[in-house]
Amino acid sequence: MRGPVRDAALAAFVAAALALPMLGFRLVDSASGLTLAGRFDLVAWAAGLVFAGRLGLRLLGGLLPSLPALPAPPARLGDMRRHAGWALTAFALVLPFLPFADRNLVDKATLVLIYVMLGWGLNIVVGLAGLLDLGFVAFYAVGAYSYALLSQTFGLSFWVCLPLAGLFAALFGLVLGFPVLRLRGDYIAIVTMGLGEIIRVVLQNWQDVTGGPNGITGIERPSLFGLSFKATAPEGQRTFAEFFGLEFSGDHRVIFLYFLILALALATNLFTLRIRRLPVGRAWEALREDEIACRSLGINPTMVKLSAFALGAMFAGFAGSFFATRQGFISPESFTFHESAVILAIVVLGGMGSQIGIVLAALLLVGLPEWFRELQQFRMLAFGGAMVLIMLWKPAGLLSRRDPTIRLGDAG
Amino acid sequence: MTRPLLAVEHVGMRFGGLFAVNDLSFEAGQGEITAVIGPNGAGKTTLFNCITGFYKPQVGRMTLSHPDGASFLLERLDDHVITRRARVARTFQNIRLFAKMSVLENLMVAQHKRLMAASLFSVAGLLGLGRYRNAERDAVELARHWLERVDLLDFADVEAGSLPYGHQRRLEIARAMCTGPLLLCLDEPAAGLNPRESAELNVLLRSIRDRDGIGLLLIEHDMSVVMEISDRVVVLDYGRKIAEGTPAQVKGDPAVIRAYLGEPDDAETGRPPC
C-alpha cells in the first residue's frame, strides 16, 4: 500500500509544480493597472486529480483492460494495399464532382495533397536513404521563390518555371548535401535543421531580391494550355469558361489547382515506386541499413546520398512552385521549421518508406486539424493525443511492412 | 614471370604509438587459399582493413594484379573503388548484411556497378527500357547461381536479418561473390559455426577456389578450417610476420607454438596450453 501512495504523491507533486505557473497565477486588468491574482484552488484540484488518478491506476491497473489490440492485418496485406492505392486514387479523381464537395473541401484536399507530395519527397531522403533531414522546408521555399521570382522578373509562365524550380531545388539539395555527407543520424538532423533556417533567414533579410518579410505578392496564376482562369482574359487569350462555354465561376480554378497537385503528387509516387526497384533505390535502402557494407560492395556512398538529397529536394521544389501559384503570395513565414517538423512527422507516422502510410498520416496530421478548426484550442490537444495513441499502438508507423523490391522469378 | 594476385610489401599501420601491423610482406596467389592466423590482437583485421581500403597504411605498398595485366596500388584507392575497379571483395567479422532487405535484394545490391551502368544512371530503368530489363534478368540469374551454391535458394525472398546465424554467414559470402571479385577476403568466416556448418564452409571455400579460380584470403581462428583448406598460411604476432608456409610447416614451427602457447618459464612449470 505504501508504494502506490508514495508514487501517487510524487505524481501529484509534479502536477502541482507544473500547474503552479500555468494555472496558479492570472493577470487581472483592474483600475490600478495589471495585478497578479492567485488561483491556487485550481492547482490544488490538479494535484488532487492526479493523485487520485495515479493511485487508482496503480491499485486497479491490473483490472483495467490493456490497450485493445488492433485487428491483425490480413495475410494478403500486400495485395490489399495495392487495391487500396487504386481505390484512393479513384476517389481522389472524382472528389471535386461529388455532391458534398464544396469549394472549402476541395481547397482543404489541395492542402492535404501538398503535404502528401512533400511527404513522398521527404520519404526518399528519410524513409529510403535513412538520412534524417529536418530542413526539408528549405527546398520547398527554394521552389516557391524560384517560381515567384522567375515569373515576376522574366515573365515566364508556370509551366516553364515548374521544371526550373525543381532543378534549382535539386541544385540546392546537392549544395546542402555536401556538408552532411560525413555525418550520420542525429548530427545530420541538426545540420539540416540549421541549413533550413539559414535559407529562411536569407529570404527574410535579402530585401532587394526576395522582398524580405513582406514577401512577394501578385504571383502569376497557372493556366491550362493558355486558357486562363480569370474572369476576363488578358489580351490575346481566352478564359477557361469562354472556351468551354461555361459560366465563369471561381470554383474552376480551385478544382484545376486540385487536379494539378493531384497529378504532381501521383507523378512523385510513380517515380518513387519505380526508382525503389532500380539500383539507385536499392542502394539507398542498403545505405540506410549499413553504410560500411555498402562501401565493401563498391557503392560510392557520396553519390548515393547526394542523389537522394537532390531528388527529394526536386519534388519539394515542384511542390513549392505549386504552393506559390496557389497562394499568389509567399513570404518567409510560410517556410518555418514547424513545416519541416510536420512533414517529417508525416513520414515517420506513416511508417518509414510506406507510400500509402504517408497519405494516411497526411490526412491525420494536416486534414483533421483543418476540419476540426471549430474545436479551437482543443484541436491541438486532440492532435497530441492522436500522436500518443499511434505511438502506443504502432510504434513503427501506421503501415510499416516492407515489400521486397524484387522476388525470385519476377524478372523473366 | 607472372605477378602474384596480391603482393603486400613492407606494410605498416600505426595507431598512436602502437604498430598494429609492422613491416609486413607476403603474397597471395590466384587459385589459392591464403590463411592469415595469429593470436588475438596480432593485427589480422587491421591488415584486412588496409587491403580493402577501410584503413590507409602509413608505409608500404599493396599491389593487386589482374590476369589481364592491369594492376592497382590498393593503398591509394578508396574502399569502394577497391571493390569496384580492383575487384577485391570482403566479408566482416561481425556480419554486416542489409537486415531489413530480402536475401535476393542483398545479392542485387552487390551487383550495383553493372546494373547502374545498364540503367544509364536510372534513366533507362525509369523508362523501363529492355536494356535494363535484360541486365536485371542476368543479375537475378547470377544471384540464383550463388543462392544455389550456398544452399539458400529456398530463402531468397526472406528478410536477411531473420535468417539463422550460419545462413547469414553463407549469405555474406554469396553477396561478396556477386560483386565479381578476383580476391575474396574473409574475416573469420567460421566464427560461431558448429562443426557440421564449418565442414560445409570448407566445401564452399574449396569450390570457390577451384571452380571460380579466384584467390582467397582468410582470417581464421578455427584450426580445423585453416589446416584443412589453406594452401599457404601466414602467421602474425604483434603485427609482425613470424612464420609462413604450408599448414604442415607452420604447425611445427617453434615460433608459432611460442606465440600461441607462450614461452615455458622452465621445464617444470610451463604454462598450460589455453
What's this, in brief?
The complex is a heterodimer of chains A (412) and B (274). Chain A is mainly α and 412 residues long.
Distance between the termini of chain B: 44 Å
> What CATH first level of the largest domain in chain B would be assigned?
Alpha Beta
Tell me the CATH architecture of the largest domain in chain B: 3-Layer(aba) Sandwich
The proportion of residues in beta strands of chain A is under 5%
Structural class of chain B: alpha/beta
Radius of gyration of chain B: 20 Å
Counted by DSSP, the helix tally of chain A is 16
Q: In whole angstroms, how far apart are the ends of chain A?
A: 69 Å
Largest chain-chain contact?
A-B, 32 and 48 residues
How would you describe the overall organization of this protein?
With 412 residues, chain A is mainly α. Chain A has 2 domains: 2-60; 85-393, no CATH class. Helices cover 66% and strands 4% of the residues of chain A. Chain A is built from 16 helices and 4 strands. Chain A has helices at residues 2-23, 40-60, 77-94, 103-128, 137-154, 158-177, 185-205, 207-210, 240-243, 251-276, 279-289, 291-296, 301-327, 337-350, 355-371, 378-393; strands spanning 25-30, 33-38, 227-228, 238-239. In chain A, a hairpin with a 2-residue loop joins β1 (25-30) and β2 (33-38). In chain A, α5 packs across α6 and α10 runs antiparallel to α13. In chain A, 40% of the residues are buried. The model of chain A has no long low-confidence stretch (mean pLDDT 84). With 274 residues, chain B is an alpha/beta fold. Chain B is 39% helix and 22% strand. Chain B contains 11 helices and 10 strands. In chain B, strands 6-7-8-3-9-10 form a 6-stranded mixed β-sheet, sandwiched between helices. In chain B, α3 packs parallel to α7 and α6 crosses α7. Mean pLDDT of chain B is 87; it is low at 267-271. Chain A binds chain B through residues 271, 274-275, 277-280, 282-283, 285-286, 289-290, 292-301, 402, 404-408, 410-412, and chain B through 52, 54, 78-81, 83-84, 89-90, 92, 96-102, 104-105, 108-113, 115-116, 119, 121-122, 125-126, 128, 132-133, 136-137, 140, 143-144, 147, 153, 156-157, 175-176, 179.
